[in-house]
Write a structure and sequence with these properties.
The complex is a heterodimer of chains A (187) and B (291). By secondary structure, chain A is mostly beta strands. Chain A is built from one helix and 15 strands, in the order ββββββββαβββββββ. The model of chain A has no long low-confidence stretch (mean pLDDT 92). Chain B is of the alpha+beta class and 291 residues long. Chain B contains nine helices and twelve strands. The chains are: A mainly beta (187), B alpha+beta (291).
């Protein structure tokens, strides 16, 4: 069991049959009352965020979360196939669980997969990935507008906004958490 | 807005200290310094103290200042460090500076006027926007207005279904639903009698309430005031009741200071207030905390 003094960003707890992760917390104490911790909790299965105030003295149940390091292999009709690097078992993870990050998967990429009980619920990619642009409009000469961007399709199929000067076949670094272009890279 | 650099914080606090001392001198108050290591650190069961080899670090100078009040010093204040264990956050530090003052013959309504005048002087010294348009509101009317709950008739379950005591349920609603509404400068008075702490209690039709107020600026509680209890027997009873809550939780009771109990009976009618000095400066300057 956790106590309120254990509450930290990232702490994973079980509540109402769901795993939650603490995304924000604040110690509050009314002058003459008992102390509370105001929290924002993110449901690890639905992504919904809720406010919950926890009284000092209330116990919190640790969520049954296990983390595995896995390697991405390939996609098939059911989803994406990963290999657990601990026991070399292959598992299929659906796009619903990948929640958009499937657009940045490249073969042999190592990811962290969080299981709640026996189900994968979250796949964490490396923060940055380097991918090649397979299609974009050529840069327009003379257009020097600051911060102007155009869409570019990457080798994985993902579409990101890149500055006008970036050309087709360039390798670019992308933030997998935001889906945003970071910089060009030399390959 | 972020907290400024350490040197700016220290310079700003120094200007505030000087303005506060000036205000108290102008208003006929005597600055007193009392020990920070004390035989009994606090009465209220929700206050946790640090133990030292020969006593405790004080959680406030309240007991010592009341002894001085009983000795005939009618207008006194103290500015100095206080210590509270198990409190940590942007607005809670285990060591902080308390400004506490007592005035013989005064009511809590007089103290509200003094708070307004003092805070205005500090704001002027800090060259920040002074606090304008103070509200004065009772706890009972806040619960009626925001939750349609009349505290005079509310059961524990009416307040919350997940807390073991009436006060815990009350404070959950307070923290969740009432305190966030206090964005304007507000004196909140008329607290439930079970939360009287060291304040006197009054009865208004069926609603016994504590003659106590808390002062809020920018949603942050800056201070707490009492119409002081001046009855030794009742004081001893409350110290023992709070100790029963501690021992019920498996925590050691706080020693009861007999000289303090005796002094309470010799105190004149008086009102007193404790203000978090670091919080006052932070709230006036719009800083995001005291750390």
């Amino acid at each position: 069991m956790y106590q309120t003094s254990d509450i930290r960003k990232g702490l994973k707890i079980e509540m109402d049959g769901y795993p939650y992760v603490v995304v924000e917390f604040l110690f509050v104490k009314p002058g003459k009352g008992t102390a509370f911790t105001r929290t924002k909790l993110k449901n690890m299965m639905t992504g919904a965020v809720l406010d919950r105030t926890i009284r000092t003295g209330e116990n919190l149940e640790p969520a049954d979360i296990t983390e595995y390091k896995m390697q991405y292999l390939y996609a098939d009709a059911d989803g994406h196939i990963f290999m657990n690097l601990e026991d070399y078992d292959q598992v299929t993870i659906t796009n619903k669980v990948l929640d958009g990050s499937e657009k940045f998967l490249v073969e042999q990429m190592e990811v962290q997969v969080l299981y709640y009980k026996s189900e994968p619920v979250i796949v964490e990619l490396p923060n940055f990935v380097e991918l090649q642009i397979t299609y974009c409009e050529p840069g327009v000469r003379g257009n020097t507008a600051q911060g102007a961007t155009k869409p570019a399709t990457l080798s994985t199929g993902a579409v990101v906004q890149v500055p006008l000067f970036v050309e087709e076949e360039t390798w670019v670094k992308v933030d997998t958490r935001t889906g945003e272009y970071v910089e060009r890279v030399r390959r | 807005m972020a907290l400024p650099d350490r040197a700016t914080v220290l310079r700003t606090r120094a200007r505030a200290l000087s303005a506060i001392r000036h205000w108290f001198e102008t208003n006929g108050y005597l600055e007193v310094l009392t020990p920070t290591i004390v035989p009994s650190p606090a009465m209220e069961a929700n206050l946790y103290a640090f133990k030292t080899a020969n006593g405790f670090l004080r959680t406030s100078p309240e007991f010592a200042l009341k002894k001085a009040l009983a000795e005939g010093l009618g207008r006194i204040y103290e500015l100095g460090p206080c210590y509270r264990a198990k409190e940590s956050g942007p607005w809670h530090q285990s060591e902080f500076t308390m400004l506490e003052w007592y005035r013989a013959g005064a009511s809590i309504w007089d103290l509200m006027d003094e708070v307004e005048s003092l805070f205005e002087q500090v704001a002027t010294a800090l060259q920040v926007q002074p606090i304008q348009r103070w509200n004065r509101v009772s706890v009972r009317s806040l619960f009626l207005r925001h939750l349609s709950i009349d505290l005079a008739h509310a059961s524990t379950e009416d307040l919350s279904e997940q807390d073991p005591s009436w006060n815990d349920a009350f404070f959950r609603r307070w923290v969740d639903d009432i305190e966030p509404t206090l964005t304007k400068p507000t004196f909140v008075h008329g607290w439930p009698a079970s939360q009287a702490a060291l304040a006197s209690i009054r009865e208004d039709d069926t609603w016994p309430y504590a003659e106590r107020f808390e002062v809020f600026v920018g949603g942050i509680e800056l201070g707490n005031a009492f119409q002081e209890l001046t009855h030794s027997g009742e004081q001893l009873h409350r110290c023992r009741s709070e100790n029963l809550i501690r021992t019920g939780r498996g925590e050691p009771a706080h020693p009861i200071d007999p000289q303090f109990i005796e002094a309470v009976g010799r105190m004149p009618r008086a009102a007193g207030i404790a203000v978090g000095f670091d919080r006052l400066v932070a709230a006036l300057c719009n800083w995001p905390g005291i750390a």
